[in-house]
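User: I'm putting together a teaching handout on how sequence relates to shape, and I'd like one worked example. Could you take 3'-5' exonuclease DinG from Lysinibacillus mangiferihumi, show the sequence you're using, and then write out its predicted structure as tokens right after it?

Assistant: Happy to. First the sequence, then the structure tokens directly below it.
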Amino acid sequence: MMESQKYAIVDLETTGHSPANGDRMIQIAIVIMKDWKIERTYTKFIHPGKSIPSFIQDLTHITDEDVKDALPFEAHADYIYELISDCVFVAHNTDFDLSFLQAEFKRAGLPKWHGKKMDTVELAKILFPMSLSFKLGDLAADLNIDLENAHRADDDALATAELFKRSWKELLSLPQLTLEQMHKRSFRLKSNLSQLFFEALQLKRHHRTTDENITYYRNIAICDGRQKRVLKSELAPYPKTINEKEALMTKAMPNFEQRPAQFTMMDTIWQALNDKEECVIEASTGIGKTVGYLLPSILYARANNKKIAISTYTAHLQEQLVEEELLKIEKILDTKVNVAVLKGMQHYIDLARFEQCMAYADESYDDTFTILQLLVWLTKTQTGVLSELNVSGGGQLFLEKIRKLPEEKPTKGFDFYEQALKNSTTADCIVTNHSMVISDLVRQTPIFRQIDGWIIDEAHQVIQAAMQQDETVFSYTQWKYIFGQIGTMEDTALFQQFSQAAKKKQRIPMQSLQQLDKQFIRLQRVFDDTIGHAVQKMQQQVRGKQASSKCTLFLEDVSLAKEPLLQVSKLLQHWLDLAVEAGKAFENNIEQLDKNEVFILSEWHYWIRELKLRIAEWEEIFLLHQDEHSVWFEFDLRSVPGSLHVYKKPVNVTPIIEKVMAPLRKQASIVWTSGTLTVPGNERFITRQLGISDSVQVMQLQAPASYYSGAKAFIVTDMPDIQQVTQAEYIEAVAHAITRTVRMTEGRCFVLFTAQDMLRKTVELIQDSELLDDYMLFAQGVTGGSRMRILKSFQKFNQAVLFGTNSFWEGVDVPGDALSSVIVVRLPFSSPEEPVFKARAKHLTLQGRNSFTELSLPEAIMRFKQGFGRLIRSSQDKGAFIVLDRRISTKSYGKEFIHALPPIDVKKLQLPELLKELNYWKK
């Protein structure tokens, strides 16, 4: 760096976010750094002139007592202003720290501070694009930066200084080509990072270092993703006795506790693999399921020089397998395992498409920022899987454009997807997902025909994956967005650019372009008219019948005229034929295309491809026979047609799963496993949907009773009957029970709902009551951010409550003290009006079967079991499972829910008694 350059790394703690609303500073810390060495630090508590809110005290651990003898900001203002006067201002979110500080300077009668600023949030997002979160505490944990007391200005400022320094080192590690491309774009950033990028580039040019593990795809530096083949060492034979297993596990894990059920699982899988058999294992939390199937699988693959495939449901589980669980196996077996992760083609980057997008001059800020993230990521990623990136909403739109999709022409040069397929040929173990396995059914060249053994983890989710694989969705706004992207000759969109480039060099006759334009205008008009008529019919159907503005209608209840639907399809196909011909004429012209024309042509092909997908979906939903599927409209009366979606889903996915598994059964053993595969009184509920023969026994493995010794279940008997009171009265009772329970357990509580509407109303009522103002409340669908982000935020606070629905019933890990209670507001029955459930129930009824006992009840019990599974994740955990729905004690089916729980103490009591029990238990 230039010797004279100094940085002031600043962090503030405040009573809130808005100085204009009276919020004030309570602590300031400044780290002065020059030549990447800390020259001095400055930190002070500041008296805010008011009491510090309790949630700020919980967050920062700064109390009124800490600041009682501190001076107000005005006493320090001149010194602070002078201290940072000749520095670049650096903070983790300069928009907050600098603007708050400027407001305090103004209040103290000082002029506005002027200078350059660098934001380490913006910098970290670019240089560490694979981080799950860009909050300072999370980045510090990822990068092993010391941060003992997050949200204390002194510790945060030092951590930010270290992050800034680490970012500089990361910049210097990048290839020169990457730095040149980044510097060129850096002037569009919000803070003055271009100066930093330029300094790094100058150093790189001066030293001319060789970049290891970097290869080049045309004009892009990428990590050499070729898998380094692991030499296969000789492994000990499978440990058949308990002593042999224990000796093997203890060698890698000195504190290993023997779990008999885990050893039984290992033996069962080892036998199934060797005998080419199918088996089903329900393995409850606490038996060590993942190691239980990985160990015999890897030993079998190595001993027989065969391949094992492990399929999971989510990307998160895939990553957990590869980054955590397989490392345990390598430690136990003292060997490296050849692992290949395989995802669908659309998960990978299309490098050729990315290069074309980079060549285009007209970029938005989101495009620029995402390109910078991608340039850095490409020098790090071994896989080329785009989900590794953490990008903004606008960034996601850019990623959609550069996903790899099936092409008529194969990509020339390096390709991450092809590399993944190649890696899988030498692997002992392939890790994939259920969707990938199911889509192999329609793949031109199946890729799962060389597998000797299958482990299907989270097996019950194969049903959901098959449902998603066979679903078709029409979105009105998506169609209109695509129409807008293409545009007409009059719009400043793609077709105008395409036609101007074509006219400029006489690539396409004017008459052809005018015909294209005319057809597109007609297509849009007919599409709008058709949707308009459909909306009128839907509004007539629901008028006066709906309690809320959100509506659901089945296609058979709307009875749309077929002719207009067919006309949209014909017009779209005709336009596509003309557009494809125009694209060929543009490309085949003798004159060489320049970079801008290459980009315009690639955009033209991209949006043609998108419209080809739309025409297929239109015909699938509106023009094909619907016997085995259910089709319904969802819309909000306040915004039609903008909110209109049409869904088509299969009523019965068993035939799809059977078709996928039939060829696999002929050549491989199949192990189905999950924590929840059975329900009391209906052991085959899941296996029959998966097409597994009744002759295949379901093995149920339960953790020892001692594992659940820290758990108790409580059924609250004095809640109102929801069928006897209004929803408002029930919500009031629920809010009362939640607030009392939370205050007694002091937070760390999950509250599980079955409906988003009830969740939102309950949270609003609790907030209005102010009874939980001392607690941080996080609510799915109310608090912004993804499920994982909400969960991470929840875990940071002792006094916190998380309200969740749907996905929070399953697959959420909150180990140890982070969770003390789970409150079940209602037994998790599907709503009778939920379209897929309604269609499946109708299907069963037509067959003369009972939809309640065969579908509704077992599904609810499955979710109930999964809800309990959130509470106890290790033998050291302690927690209360509280059910507010009195039907569990008043209805005949209630005992089946209780039987689904592990062997724990279950008490039925009224709310006041529950609070006494919780208070006693807490002590």
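A couple of points you could highlight for students: The mean pLDDT is 88. The chain has 35 helices and 25 strands.
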